[in-house]
Amino acid sequence: MNWNRKIQVLVGTAAIAAAASLPLPAQLPTPGAPGIPVNPLVGDTSAVAKEAQGWLAELIRINTTNPPGNEQVAAKYIAGILEKEGIKAEILDITPGRSAVVARLRSAVMADPSKALLLVAHMDVVAVDKSKWTVDPFGGVIKDGYLYGRGAIDDKGMLAANLAAFITLKRANLRINRDVIFLATADEENGGEANIKVLIAKYWDKFAAGFSINEGGNIFVKNGKIQYVGVQASEKVSANIDVIARGRSGHASQPTKDNAVVHLALAVGKIGAYTAPVHLTAIVRRYFEGLAPLEDDEIGKWMRSLDTSDRGEHAQRVLSNTSPLWNAMLRDTITPTILTAGVANNVIPGEAHGNLNVRLLPGDTVEAVVRDLTKLVDDSQVKLEVRPNGGLAAPPSSLESDFYGVISKVASQEFSGVPVLPFQSTWATDSSQLRLHNVQAYGLVPFPLTEEDLKRMHGDDERIPLAAFNKGIDVLARIVAEFAAAR
Ligand SMILES: [Zn+2]
Fold it and tell me: How far is the CA of 104 from the centre of ligand 1 (A)?
């Protein structure tokens, strides 16, 4: 979609823009309810959404805590659902017990990978602290309108929604003008030996595509209303730095000035108080421009001032202090996460280690961060070493592609005209590897979620509101159908 058409869509939706300020239940009309038109391409999705609730509960019951992952069990379960629909599914084995699963709806005898659309979600989940949960994290329990369980929003909810959108397209028997590929990946949370990089190296021809939709962006609910839809088009890059302090070991009864524990603590203290300079990427600039009118006047004013020479610095400070997310979108961040030192209460150790988790803006390098921090620490007893296996920066996806246009149009229509903003996530996803393979990759978990629900991601009592899940399936099915249907 080109820029002019985008403006027409925006003007067209302006008439219903007032509806964007409606409270959440009014923004989540069920398709088929009186006055709510059923989309002609995919029809009423409420029945498939009900089925997908069952798939999600079942996927939660399949424990894919990573490590060890054991995604093969989930892959086989998904393959079974697809086979029942008459769709051939292929299990792609990566390492023992760890597999991906792929399936394809063909548009022509000869596939054109550059046009294909890839629906991607990961099957593995992070560990739980069972004692902190009020329900069985692997029970798939429904309570008070929520489906609870590890993975409900990260990422088995989207996995089930992708499956529903894919199956809806098959059932609708639409003529499509591009292949649509379903892919469930392994080892996203740990980025280890079964991750998407390995999968691409082994099986790229099975799912090569020009466009993809994955997790990474969200539909943000604030004060009971959908505030905006954030479509991830870029992401920060993760790296780790080992801070190593060395000194003479000895008897704790005779303290020395070169104690490695003390030097490590001082270095980490300085690093913790340090703030990296602001660097506005094109996507973050567009994000704040779009968000400014949605925030209160004061915050909106600072968002508009971000790039000015006289008030820019103050604006950056105000926004960074207001929101940890905004702070992390504006700059590289350096977070101390692990300290290790000492062997006994009465021994001065000769070495002490600290880990820094670094999140780089695309374009920035970890070597530059090491240089800056070395200067800041200014201690010959302390060395900083980059750990191997850091992420790779990928080029951002285009905000002018047809697929970005379709996502924006459908999301805006489905949510009564709420703004759709490009989003640069502070977290990493499988999409960066896809972008490195020339895929226009976008992130959008299609469920409207409150901050309170988003915080449960990787936390205790993770859950998804069923109304949001159903709505998300309608949104996603429409996005996929609108982009793939031949006209
Ligand atoms: Zn995830």
Answer: 23
